[in-house]
Task: inverse folding
């Protein structure tokens, strides 16, 4: 029997394996793909990039690793991130404990975990660690007639590993979230004609992507200790602080200057322009209207611009995209925007997509419809605990204590699962915090002679109340179509899943629980 089985070989699985080895524990990582990378192995769609800046979208656990790696751009493309993760796997000799092409289908607990794979293999371990990612279960909408479509269709989260050539083709894209906003400008450059099917207009801020010169990279390498410390001190895991000033207390003239400077700098720091953007509707309205004005200035056709203006959710209440030329794309003569709220999709036909108003002839169809986020990856496995299944436990929404463990599922840990800050943060920062906590917990169990640990139902209930209360202190739940709430998946419970109380505060709570003999957990 192994000490631990880890499911997934992305950022989480690689670091977890490294820490388990450091503890002298035997471990195997089971990975469905044929290589490491997780999200960055599967998401190869045109335009795929990170929306955190490269120099801190990376591991901090090894100083030599930080000093030797060189990023080429402010926002790295998918191939560069994948190359980085392959470098990590090779540098720390991780592949010898990873079983590629091994999809886990079931796991059951009986004084240890038995894990079953798609090929019928069985493995046993004392501990099971889900490193399956928050955004890894592709959400393909059930559209009438999709099987009849004569062209090729793709999902951005399951993109082919070979090149896809859209030259001379009529291409349709369904979805204008973060992924669609990245892919649409690139697809427009390739296709003979691009038709965008938009359900929800989205706020987006320019990325201002650019190459990184050696002077900047040398300065980062010299300051990494301070940068990493700041990441751990902030609410979102990024190395910048939110302004202490409130938008509602700032004059319109000064406010516009602040927004304009943030717009020109680009990127996710726009959200940090004022302290009250996610706690005050009045404050948020000022940012939202500033972005709407930018959209009106950018898109030449006033009718198209109007359809692109978001009004149904506060700015940053949904995952806030950053883009390169997204709104400019709608100035092209070979791009058509279809508002599917006004004219809903009726069916996919042999020749394209038919809405209530017209049929759009297509040679290829791209689904940028996101994922069954946060819960989907774990629920894609038949997980059976001491008293029932995870699917039954989460029927009305996910339950966990600190997003780390689920009552009734002993010795099961989930990295950046529902109930943790995860997707509201810079993911590698959250991943390292979770993995380090789990490694500490496993060491403490061993050192104190315990074989088993499980969250208590009382702690789980109290944490669920805190997760909801933290969300309610913000504007985040107002985005009714957000995948933070599971709203992009038909039939999924509408529950706000990530913890909105901030990463630094959350990490302190985790440390406090561990320090006080793992309060909220039962050890035996």
Result:
């Amino acid at each position: 029997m192994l000490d631990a089985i880890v499911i997934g070989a992305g950022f989480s699985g690689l670091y977890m394996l490294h820490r388990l080895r450091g503890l002298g524990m035997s471990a195997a990582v089971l990975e469905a793909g044929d290589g490491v990378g997780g999200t960055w192995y599967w998401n190869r769609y045109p335009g795929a990039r990170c929306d955190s800046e490269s120099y801190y979208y990376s591991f901090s656990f090894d100083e030599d690793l930080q000093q030797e790696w060189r990023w080429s751009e402010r926002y790295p493309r998918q191939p560069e991130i994948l190359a980085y993760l392959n470098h990590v796997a090779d540098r720390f000799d991780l592949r010898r404990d990873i079983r590629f092409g091994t999809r886990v289908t079931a796991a059951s607990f009986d004084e240890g975990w038995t894990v079953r794979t798609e090929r019928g293999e069985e493995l046993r371990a004392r501990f099971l660690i889900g490193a399956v990612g928050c955004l890894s279960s592709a959400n393909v909408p059930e559209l009438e007639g999709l099987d009849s479509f004569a062209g090729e269709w793709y999902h951005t989260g399951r993109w082919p590993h070979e090149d896809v050539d859209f030259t001379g083709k009529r291409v349709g894209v369904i979805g204008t979230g973060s992924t669609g906003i990245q892919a649409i400008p690139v697809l427009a450059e390739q296709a003979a004609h691009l038709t965008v099917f938009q359900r929800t207009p989205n706020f987006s801020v320019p990325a201002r992507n650019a190459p990184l010169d050696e002077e900047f990279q040398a300065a980062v390498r010299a300051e990494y200790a301070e940068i990493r410390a700041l990441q751990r001190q902030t609410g979102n895991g990024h190395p910048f602080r939110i302004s202490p000033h409130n938008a509602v207390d700032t004059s319109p003239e000064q406010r516009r200057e602040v927004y304009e400077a943030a717009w020109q700098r680009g990127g996710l720091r726009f959200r940090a322009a004022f302290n009250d953007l996610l706690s005050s509707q009045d404050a948020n309205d000022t940012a939202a209207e500033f972005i709407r004005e930018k959209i009106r200035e950018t898109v030449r056709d006033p009718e198209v611009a109007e359809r692109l203006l978001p009004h149904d959710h506060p700015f940053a209440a949904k995952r806030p995209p950053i883009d390169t030329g997204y709104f400019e794309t709608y100035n092209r003569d070979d791009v058509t925007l279809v508002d599917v709220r006004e004219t809903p999709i009726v069916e996919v036909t042999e020749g394209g997509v038919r809405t209530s108003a017209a049929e759009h002839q297509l040679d290829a169809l791209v689904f940028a419809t996101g994922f069954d986020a946060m819960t989907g990856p774990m629920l894609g496995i038949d997980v059976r605990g001491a008293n029932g299944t995870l699917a039954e436990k989460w029927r009305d929404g996910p339950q966990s204590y600190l997003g780390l463990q689920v009552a009734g599922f002993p010795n099961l840990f989930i990295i950046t699962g529902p109930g943790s800050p995860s997707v509201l943060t810079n993911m590698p920062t959250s991943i390292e915090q979770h993995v380090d906590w789990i490694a500490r917990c496993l060491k403490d169990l061993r050192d104190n002679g315990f074989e088993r640990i499980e969250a208590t139902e009382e702690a789980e209930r109290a944490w669920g109340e805190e997760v909801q209360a933290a969300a309610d202190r913000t504007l985040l739940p107002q985005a009714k179509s957000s995948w933070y709430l599971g709203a992009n998946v038909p039939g999924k419970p509408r529950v706000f899943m990530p913890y909105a109380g901030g990463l630094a505060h959350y990490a302190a709570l985790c440390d406090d629980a561990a320090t006080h003999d793992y309060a909220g957990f039962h050890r035996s």
Q: What stands out?
A: The chain is about 30% helix and 15% strand. The first helix runs from residue 11 to 22. The mean pLDDT is 95.
